[in-house]
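Sequence, please.
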């Protein structure tokens, strides 16, 4: 969020109590930045939770055909983002 990017107006509703607390605690000139940062942090937390869930659901050792965890995760990453293995290894760009 360090780089200034074009802003878009968003319309949503929040509980009156939360709106009142926001208005009491955050100056009017800083509210958009405050809300943007709060939403960004919440979305990052959602992404971390999703990643943890995905890691918890990875197949157990018996499903990996004896390959190392590192090799298994590299192959999964290849499948997820479509990059060739040599790109992941850093030997090709």
């Amino acid at each position: 969020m360090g780089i200034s990017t074009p802003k878009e107006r968003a319309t949503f509703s929040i509980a009156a109590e939360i709106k009142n607390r926001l208005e009491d605690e955050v100056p009017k000139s800083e509210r958009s930045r405050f809300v943007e940062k709060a939403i960004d942090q919440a979305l990052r937390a959602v992404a971390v939770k999703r990643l943890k869930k995905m890691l918890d659901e990875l197949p157990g050792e018996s499903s990996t055909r004896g390959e190392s965890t590192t090799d298994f995760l590299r192959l999964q990453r290849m499948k997820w983002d479509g990059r060739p293995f040599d790109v992941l290894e850093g030997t090709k760009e």
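Residues 31-56 form the longest helix (26 residues).
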